[in-house]
Structures are given as C-alpha cells and as structure tokens.
Amino acid sequence: MDQAREAVSRRHKNPIDVHVGSRVRDRRSRLTMSQGELGELLGLSFQQIQKYEKGVNRISAGLLSYIARILGVKIIYFYEGMELGLPGAQSRDPEEDRARLVMEFVSGTEGAQLNHAFMKIGRAKVRKRLLDLMKCLAQEESIERDQG
User: Fold this and answer.
1) Which whole-number Å values give the CA distances from 84 to 12, 15, 55, 80, in the listed order?
2) What are the structural domains, with CATH classification, of the chain?
3) N or C: which end of the chain has fewer CB within 10 A?
4) DSSP string, 38-83
5) Closest residue by Cα to residue 56 from 104, 103, 22, 107
6) Is residue 112 classed exposed, middle or buried when 0-12, 13-18 and 19+ CB atoms within 10 A define those classes?
7) What pTM was computed for the model?
8) CA-CA distance, 27 to 107, in Å (whole number)?
9) For every one of its 148 residues, what pLDDT tens digit does the chain have, with 9 covering 90 and above?
10) Rounded Cα–Cα distance for residues 19 and 84 (Å)
11) CA–CA distance, 19 with 124 (Å, rounded to integer)
C-alpha cells in the first residue's frame, strides 16, 4: 500500500474494528474490570486497550481469542449485531434496533458516566425526578428542532 493510501486509511476507523472494540468495552465494563486490569492480563498498557476499544487500532485474531477467554465469552460475542452497523444494513427487528442504540449509548463515555452517576443516587424519588426532568428537556428540544 502506498504512503498516501495508508495515511488515509489510518484516519478513518473501520466500522468492524469500532464494533468489535465497543463489544470489548461493553463486556469489560459489565465485569467492572478497568482498562488497566485487562491490559495487565494481556501484557498491554491501558492506552492500548483504549485504542482497541475505540476502534483506532485493529485487534488481531490471536489477541481477540485471549480477550474472549479473559472476559468469559465466545469470540462470536464480539461480532454480534455487527451487520446492523455496516452501511446499507437494516434491522430485522425494531426492538433489536432500540436495544443496539441503548447499548451504544451506555457503552460510550457520556452514557457510562451518566449511568454511573445516576446509580449513585440512593433515593428512588430523586432518581424519578431526574428522569422526569430529562424527559421534559428532551421534549423541549424536540419541539425546538421541529419549529427551527
């Protein structure tokens, strides 16, 4: 591959690498394992794990096998739902599509932070009020978007 083509390909993340990385992040988070802990088990830095999870760097087949064993899943886990994220793909089930969007949000930085902060609120009444506020804000933004 010539240098110009290689530079362009490095700038654009491959959707498959992004999907696999997000599935690694999702599973690791569900196990309450830090990037540093996973990296230590693999002999890698947390920064390298971060790059894999964001899809900046591609995970090799051999490394994915080790990651699967550490995280207690089969390799196919990392590819589940991938076809939905590829250009031109259509969801077979609207519920499946909603679940995928929720998982993408929750596994992202803002979603994870929001979820973590929300769960720290001990009183159910306060959580309910916060949820009502968020619904109002979303509805307001939707109205503004429709009018603008």
Assistant:
1) 19, 11, 17, 9
2) 3-90 (1.10.260.40), 108-148 (no CATH)
3) C
4) HHHHHT--HHHHHHHHHTSSPPPHHHHHHHHHHHT--GGGGGTTHH
5) 22
6) middle
7) 0.55
8) 9
9) 445 444 444 567 888 898 899 999 989 988 889 999 999 999 999 999 999 999 999 999 999 999 999 999 999 989 887 765 555 455 456 666 677 677 777 767 787 788 888 888 999 999 999 999 989 998 887 787 777 6
10) 10
11) 34
**Token output for 83:** 């076809």
Residues in the chain: 148
Instruction: Look up residue 32 and give its two tokens.
Output: 């309450």
Token output for 138: 């979303």
**Which of helix, strand or coil describes residue 24?**
helix
Among candidate residues 73, 62, 58, the one with its CA nearest the CA of residue 16:
58
Which tokens in the block code for residue 108? 């992202």
- Judge residue 49's burial from the number of C-beta atoms within 10 Å of its C-beta, 0-12 exposed, 13-18 middle, 19 or more buried: buried
Distance of CA 50 to the CA centre of its chain: 11
Q: Are 55 and 88 in contact (CB under 8 A)?
A: no
